[in-house]
Amino acid sequence: MALSPQPLIERRREQVFPDLDPLEIERMRRFGECRTFAPGEKLFSAGEIGPGLVVIIAGNVDITQSDQAGRRTLIVSHGPGQFIGELAQMAGRPSLADATAQAPVDALIIPPDQLRALLIAEAELGERIMRALILRRVGLLELGGGGPVIVGRTQNSDVLRLQGFLRRNGHPFQLLNPETDTEAKALVERFHVDPGQLPIVLCPGGQLLRNPSEDELARCIGLVRAIDPDRRYDVAVVGAGPAGLATAVYAASEGLSVLVLDCRAFGGQAGASARIENYLGFPTGITGIALMARAYNQAQKFGAEMAIPDEVSALSAQSDSAGDFVLRLHNGEEVKARSVVIASGARYRRLNVENLDAFEGTSVHYWATPLEARLCANQEVALVGAGNSAGQAAVFLAGQGAKVRMLVRRADLSATMSHYLVDRIQGLANIDVVTDAAVSGLEGRDGMLEAIRWRIGATGQEVRRPIQHLFLFIGAEPNTDWLGGSGITLDAKGFVLTGEDAGGDRHALETTRRGVFAIGDVRAKSVKRVAAAVGEGAQVVAALHSYLGTTTGHAAMATIPAARAQSS
Ligand SMILES: Cc1cc2nc3c(=O)[nH]c(=O)nc-3n(C[C@H](O)[C@H](O)[C@H](O)COP(=O)(O)OP(=O)(O)OC[C@H]3O[C@@H](n4cnc5c(N)ncnc54)[C@H](O)[C@@H]3O)c2cc1C
Hints:
Strand content: 15-25%
Radius of gyration: 25 Å
Helix content: 25-40%
Largest sheet: 5 strands, parallel
Number of helices: 15
Distance between the termini: 60 Å
Bound molecules: flavin-adenine dinucleotide
Structural class: alpha/beta
């Protein structure tokens, strides 16, 4: 029998719970304030915003989690020289666990803004603390503890949607299936939930949500907060993919106030990549979500604020009376900023097949992550696409035991896919590349796919296979609908024009509107790669400095009408 791997908290205990020496605590004092707690007193509770990082000087504190039946589990007991906190404390978000004093406690409380200052000012100590905060979050993700509880059937499309959302945002959660789990059954009865109303979500603060939208769930668990209408950011970045996060890291670390908005999750398309092998410095490759989570935490360490999920629905055509750009959000809120960086990337193309939407969310997938791999373990799956993202997904799924039928329109892969991936696919016996193939029909019911048909070009012959999962990797279109009427000129395919194409004296990454820049996949003529997006994210910061240096708070009025250039 295979031994289950030891939990991360045990494997890396010394890094997860490091001991600070008295000199280090002395150096930390200038960042916080001392407080005392009586035995039994709560330092903070799950679901509520805590005071920040807590360094214990004397006494003991238990960190516990409660389940839906009210049972408490001890995660760890902290003593003198240890500190309490995880990533939520760095970002000032609600705590994921309860902390209770077990004896009279003297503690140093370091609020989130001072914690970020400490992480930057104290390089070596900061690194140890940051590593511990990240590892503690990874440990909570592994345990599935501390977050909301989703109650619903494993294969239900809304359950998959909510799971996918929390997972992509690095937030722990638990899933309970009322068909197999007695606790879930008890919850459904306790809250008088009709099976048709599932899933329900129980938030750590005790609120019950019935099949919530991602936005409702995010607000309930404190992932996203209301925008301060009086705040004026130096730069607002639309999109938290690699381009937007790179801007956030470089701009915030150079002292600019930054707000990053994303309508879904951090990481963008890169966050969906099963393994990025061509990003500089990672010779063994890295999963997209791991690379992006590092960037997301790094940006917050430098003080960039995140508004995720928050969808930008418009950039106003004119600056307001103070000369600020105004971004309008889908929920009616507004963001004011002295400059704007468009990093809204691209979204996946859908297949032109009747009834595709009937199977999206359950059987048709646009990502291949461990979540999808679990759904189709040891099954035959179909995957459409011939680019690098399709190749990576096929290799990943095959590595998880699936038999992959890779449906490709052309006669071979070499024109559209990197050589190393073509080689790898050829070396895997459980990937079958079917060339000259186009999906012609989907069969199934109740949202569950039962069979896929495809036609072979040369012969017109139709093949039917009993396949329950279809993966689509057929390219992307720019996310620029929200720019209509903004004064930003797009090319014929909807990508944002910059530099010379936007007007004579523009910075290379500046759009037709002064003070508004575009980077990454959304920019016309950009190279569609993670490294290119990150490079542009860093490069734009120099342009931001020079633009902000020339304004005295009055950004130029938009004079160029929204239009798509006629060039192809
Ligand atoms: C599956 C897959 C695998 C890939 N693998 C590789 C690889 O191995 N190597 C490589 O170099 N490249 C790879 N790529 C390409 C790479 O991921 C992209 O080039 C890169 O992510 C582009 O970054 P970006 O920040 O410009 O845009 P994106 O990554 O597209 O991010 C844009 C973000 O903007 C957000 N957004 C859009 N509209 C709005 C709005 N109105 N309001 C708020 N937010 C908005 C989106 O939610 C998204 O998070 C892969 C792509 C995919 C899909």
